[in-house]
Amino acid sequence: MFELIKSLFRFPGPAMLLLGLAAGSTLARRRRTTRRAHEHGDQIIAHASDAIISTDADNAILMANPSAAAMFASTVEAMQGSPLSRFITPQPSVGDGGVAYFGDGGRVGRRATDYAVSGIRSGGKIFPLEGSVSTVVEGATPIHTIIVRDVSGRHQVQDKLTRSHAQLRQLSAALQTIREEERTHIARELHDDLGQLLAALRMDLSLLQQQESGDAATRLIRGMEQNLLTAITSLRRIATNLRPRSLDEGGLFFALQGLRDDFVERYGIACTLYADEAELRLGNVASTAIFRIVQEALTNIARHAYASNVTITLYRVDGEVLLTVRDDGRGIAAADMEKAQSLGLVGMRERVWAMDGDITISSDEPPGTRIDIVLPLPKPHEHA
Questions:
Q1: 5, 184, 314, 344: least surrounded by Cβ within 10 Å?
Q2: In the chain, alpha helices (H)
Q3: Cα 231 from chain centroid?
């Protein structure tokens, strides 16, 4: 073989001819391989289920596969050469080619929905898109390849979930209102009917005590009086828990004072209320919501916090009520706030959200737990 190559160089004409033929054969094979690769890539793009579009720097469509044509209710021929803005909106004010439609440099994987991009079908119908962009440079010309997906179905599901969530919120608010109305009705019935009856019985018993009777009758009467006093006290407590009369007669400030005093007496936990009576002359809806939130917060503290001091701060600023309830107990873990059994916290949140307010529950200032609530005050015509 070596001798053959040496002989070829003795006769340069034939040698160069053979080498040229060999090189030409290799180049031809490479071209055929490249052509087959391009044809294979074109077939993959043509049969891809995702819509694929290529554009130049001026947002002119260079290529669109059949899936893209079907998505936009058009044809491949009609899309090629058309501006990208004919099929995707809104058109970006700045940027280079298709990258600008999808924001942040067109990084692969960024969703078009993050940038409020929509598709336009040939009939003018708008639908939501999700997509990504990749860029290659051929010579000095950038070519942008855009892969887009129709996410109408996903948006429909999301819209249904949003509507369902809103309906549940409305149902929760309606149930809270109904519950409060029932509490008010029962409390009034207990106070006006049963309370007056017990008071009348006690008066009759007092008159009976003034009459002379034996020792056995006296002891019996005293026992009856004690039972009546206990019944009256229990009745007042039950009626107050259902709906404190001070909330209707004296307003939120006096209702919170009564709630604070009852909490201290029952649980032996020091509680300080910082509030201004003049600032808390609110409507019935806002007053009731705030009272119930504080009531639930104190109940949770008594049951779970193991606290020795509680501070309640309530004041108005620029049409909003700012409420803070803070204790020095064991604190609350993040996992506890997400438990399905934490119905007290759920009820507080629902009341706050029903009034378009914000609530934050944290244990980031140890020791203890802090609840911060911001409630927008209803307009005067919304007061009930």
A1: 5
A2: 2-10, 12-47, 66-71, 76-79, 99-102, 152-189, 195-210, 215-242, 245-249, 252-267, 284-300, 334-337, 343-354
A3: 47
